[in-house]
Amino acid sequence: MAEIGLDGEVGVRAEAEEPSIADFFALMKPRVMSLVILTALTGIVAAPGAIHPVLGVIALLAIAIGAGASGALNMWYDADIDARMQRTAARPIPRGRVSADEALQFGAILSVFSVLTLGVLVNWVAGALLAITIAYYVFIYTMWLKRRTPQNIVIGGAAGAFPPMIGWAAVTGGVSLESIVLFLIIFMWTPPHFWALALYRCRDYERVGVPMLPVVAGPAETRRQIVIYSWLLVPLATLPAFMGFAGSLYLVAAVVSGAIFLYLADKVRRTTEGREADYAAKQLFGFSIFYLFLLFVILLGEHAWQRLLG
To answer: Which H/E stretch holds residue 4?
Structure first.
């Protein structure tokens, strides 16, 4: 069976080396799925009204599977550059554990299954939003934007911002201003998060011709853009408290963690040479993950506690 090897060339997978369940699970980008599950669950719990627990679980699983399908299709399309990047060379297709055709079939089947499940068993607004999310990530980001523009992450980031909106729609059957705010928080978080990664992985992207901002505009402009988007993000992240669907604990966490986020973004701007620059970018990248998880965990916890009380 034809495979793409670590050197970017086509190789042959031995018939004995059939893909395992773990290989297919890896295709679904489980670390990304964990964020999707958290943000979608927050949308479900924070939404006004109620959903039957069984339908809530079905909705959450369908959203998670849809996200996994997007990941598999992304790996199918990007198999050629994944094989040449240090960060992605251990993925199942470059390693020869799964063929590109198998990844395509797996992703396509999961996409259809997740959308139909959510649409038929929950509601079609949520199902349509999930279909848009998958299509946006695969066709708009992966196939169109990623290899053509340094704004790939900015525009393409919308795909990762949909899950709380889908969860909200699963309960309410519609989209509201509150769910749009949750969408916007993730949307504004995505550029500084990924540009921090791109700063210390710049050579990887340069090698495969992906026009990430540090490759096209240079590190200095990337650092400036990180600061700009960080300043847009942090005040935006406090809106749930001022709009009344988050409590005081959320507001304190958003302000304190936001201040740390801004400090680290400014540290990236000021630190421009050698290992110190890479370390500053890695610090911001790592903290940005914690930051988003913290906000959504607290928002989820506040609403879950309110429901328990009554």
So the answer is: strand 2-4
User: What's the rounded Cα separation, in Å, for the pair 236 and 230?
Assistant: 10
DSSP state, residue 11 = E
In this prediction the pTM is: 0.93
Contacts of 124 (CB under 8 A, 6+ apart): none
The CATH homologous superfamily to which domain 24-173 belongs is UbiA prenyltransferase (1.10.357.140)
Question: Quick one: which of 110, 91, 88 has its CA closest to 19?
Answer: 91
Q: Which two tokens stand for residue 135?
A: 């299509």
Residues forming beta bridges with residue 4, ordered by sequence position: 10
- E strands, the chain, are 2-4, 10-12
Domain map of the chain by residue range? 24-173, 176-304
Residue 259: exposure state from Cβ atoms within 10 A (0-12, 13-18, ≥19): exposed
pLDDT averages per 10-residue partition of the chain, 310 residues: 43 61 95 95 96 97 98 96 92 94 97 98 98 97 94 91 98 97 98 95 90 94 97 98 97 98 97 92 97 98 89
